[in-house]
Amino acid sequence: MKLRSNLAVVIAMLATVFAANASEYPAKPIRVVIPYPPGGTSDILARLIGAKLTESWGQQVFVETRAGGGTVIGTEIVAKSPPDGHNLLMVSTSHTTNPTLVRKLPFDTLRDLAPVILVANSSNVLLAHPSLPARSVKELIAVAKSRPDQVAYGSGGNGTSTHLSGEMLSQMGGVTMIHVPYKGAGPANIALISGQITWMFGNAIPSVPYIKSGRLRALAVTGKQPIPALPGVPTVSATLPGFEANSWYGVSVQGGTPKDVIAKLNQDIGRVLGTTEMRVRLEAEGAEAGSGSPEEFGVFFRAEIEKWAKVIRAAGIRLE
Hints:
The protein is built from twelve helices and eleven strands. By secondary structure, the protein is α/β, with parallel strands linked by helices. Helix 4 (94-101) crosses helix 12.
């Protein structure tokens, strides 16, 4: 009986400690890990949000880029960090493709990461070189059917979201095309503009000047709705119902982080995303501010894993 009584006291003490930690959060500077090279969208978003949180919390929020391993290196740092909410991770599509794509991850994505909030959603564009005799998704599929294994499309690398988007279009369109991977989106864009490849999926904002100058042609956008930056350009889903391959960005923490801390992070980041200043800034970048509860982001995250798993397995893609 005494042992049971002492155990109850210990449990009560631990509960009090966790409650205090949650109510006093953040108790020290916050690190936001970016598992990509500096200067990308995740980096920009983290710095914008971090500056506002620093003002409201009175604790410094600093950004640390830890690129490598297709986001694995930076992700492992947060997945194995103390579960106190002081290490945040910017997550994106790669975090939902790696569980199927990578043969052995040093962490369990769903167990070791806890969703906080969806930060932003951005439509991509199906870009074509003017030499490609297609002005729509339907015509692109027709060209690919008439030239099996001859139409080449590029991407920022094997297993990237641009590669998998191309695979999904091929599968849904019932065609086979040649995938040409490049070492990043920049080299792939150069190859498309020069005509080395005939089409690819790319981000809307950097592509608009090339589209307006006639050096590239926009066949469709990858979201559910057309975007203001490209009026008159239809969605891929108008031809292939169910197709959606946006770029999205979110925040996660270590899987054992107390729910009260996650709730505070969700509330405070959500407040930043809801400001007019942030919404206008994101729209200028071609993105839409995110929102929603941790549970809603978790449902979205799992749905993305399932969606891309089907594409990856059907294409037979596997990375060591």
